[in-house]
Design goal:
This protein is about 25% helix and about 20% strand. The chain has one domain: Cytidine Deaminase, domain 2 (3-Layer(aba) Sandwich), CATH 3.40.140.10. With about 160 residues, the protein is α+β, with helices and mostly antiparallel strands. Helix 2 runs parallel beside helix 3. The chain has a six-stranded mixed sheet. The two termini are about 25 Å apart. A hairpin with a 5-residue loop joins strand 5 and strand 6. It is built from three helices and six strands. The longest helix is centred in the first third of the chain and has 15 residues, at about 20-35. It binds tetrahydrodeoxyuridine.
Length: about 160
């Protein structure tokens, strides 16, 4: 029996102001997207913005449904839109912000497991890392240099 150790490195900025200007601008677009979220059930609004290699930016927010599982997270709304509108254009980075209506969201909110899996598909295909920045409403911003850091030992098409 051999032990398998998995190590991931993330980076924490104290505030959005400490991140590069390009990320601040991308996060502002994610914030605008978040405000348009349709989240009447969870009251938890999420916005995501994606910068593509061709300079285009696409954004999305979570879209809930009375049939709860039919809703979709912000990250997947955004990345599927990117894939649909700009197929085969590489994704450079993604900014995510979340806000609960019940409490002040000051901690960085990482993408859920299903969204990590969805982002991994694009990262694996494009063979370039996707940088991911995530935050609450204000406060710390966490950066992952690659989706792989958020989903170590992931399942992908090479396993099929
Ligand atoms: N949500 C996202 O949009 N992204 C995540 O990564 C986590 C959760 C949404 C789904 C649902 O509309 C609400 O947040 C509460 O789970």
């Amino acid at each position: 029996m051999k032990e398998i150790k998995i190590e991931s490195t993330l980076y924490a900025f104290n505030s959005l102001n400490e991140t590069p200007k390009e990320i601040q601008d991308l996060m502002e677009i994610a914030i605008e997207a978040r405000k348009k979220a349709y989240a009447p059930y969870s009251k938890f609004k999420v916005g995501a913005a994606i910068l593509l290699e061709n300079g285009e930016i696409v954004s999305g927010s979570n879209q809930e449904n009375a049939s709860y599982p039919s809703g979709l997270c912000a990250e997947r709304t955004a990345i599927y839109y990117a894939g649909a509108k700009y197929p085969n254009v590489k994704i450079v980075n993604m900014a995510i912000t979340a806000a609960s209506e019940n409490q002040e969201t000051l901690e960085p909110i990482p993408p859920c497991g299903a969204c990590r899996q969805a982002i991994a598909e694009y990262e694996n295909n494009q063979e370039n890392a996707i940088e991911i920045y995530f935050m609450g409403v204000s406060g710390k911003v966490v950066k992952s240099n690659s989706l792989a850091n958020l989903l170590p030992f992931g399942f992908n098409k090479s396993n099929l």
